[in-house]
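Quick start: what a row looks like.
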Amino acid sequence: MSTSKTKTPTAQQLPKRVVLAYSGGLDTSIILKWLQDEYGCEVVTFTADIGQGEEIEPARAKAIKMGIKKENIFIEDLREEFVRDFVFPMFRANALYEGEYLLGTSIARPLIAKRLVEIAKKTKADAISHGATGKGNDQVRFELGAYALMPNVKVIAPWREWDLLSREKLLAYADQHGIPVDFKKRKGGAPYSMDANLLHISYEGGILEDPNFAPEDSMWRLTVSPEKAPSKPQIIELTYEKGDVVAIDGKKMSPAQVLTHLNQVGGKHGIGRLDKVENRYVGMKSRGCYETPGGTILLSGHRAIESITLDREVLALKDDLMPRYARLVYNGYWFSPERELLQGLIDASQATANGKVRLKLYKGTIMCVGRESATDSLFDAKISTFDDDGGAYNQADAGGFIKLNALRMRIAGNLKASRAASARAQSKAPSKAAAKKAPVKVAKKK
């Protein structure tokens, strides 16, 4: 019996080959079988390693067991591309969604969409498929990315078609079709869902759907609690070239190595936890908990190097544009012309973001304790000093500067004072009507 809520497609509508974003887990294993049965199509699986911390090779054996040809199984290590081409450009913008979220899930989706499309073109597939639900942001991110890169691609989103909308129905379908189910999944598994990559781990759903519920400390995977972090602080030095970290403590590293190392160091010191209620693009509010230790360090360090190498108004412009940029990433518009335009502006600003930053990590906190740029620092100690500057700065100039900047406020102040004086004068003067009604006093003759 069909599990689809929609009408069965005609033969002309049925895709012949579909590329599925496949993790090898329960949901995507069910989707794989469902695509074969519901659409009668050949399935190509794509499994990406973006630093989720789990073995991905077992996905190959599972796909073969489900009848997928070896040549139709794509398993790729995308960690370097993920950090170099997606995470680092985003951090050049200092992007924070709603002032807090470092966009760990959001920034991974365009890369997956890009590879889905590239594999679809390579294998001559006419459709792609994903396991995102009809309530979340990921469906938007996957599909906006895919349509931008392959405008006429067909997208199959099973969660918007089938009626397997409960865990019990999914397990029953798995049993019916001989799909292996992990014991933890059968027993309910974790009381929330997790999504991990090299930038972060997110926790959502289940018991976390009560925004007033405090998650137990055992939930967190990347970080220790600040209370249990080392009592001795650690100082690390980040070397920046054009806004990107290229070395830590003097040791050159690739982008993925940088983030991996910062995750380890930051996690040890309890850095990067966030519990947030955010506004999803689809309209609802959602509560999520996030661990982003390396990203939190990257943001602090980047702002520090920009503080001495970027012009004041350039920094202000970037800060003005950042919320817009962050919304574009969160909402799935990575491949949009406006994001690419903003990226060009942001990247141009990073030409001078070169130098070194020292950060002190201690019990969940980060403090910048030093920043320098031998080539691009705009910090001029001769001008900034509180001691005798030898005439580098004429303090008398400040008087005229202040008066000119105050001119509009002085004009407005004078006008306000004039209006107030006029109002007081009118309140004291008797009105004409009152003067007419006033009795005339006649002097009596003695």
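That is the whole record. Residues 397-428 form the longest helix (32 residues). The first strand starts at residue 17 and ends at 21.
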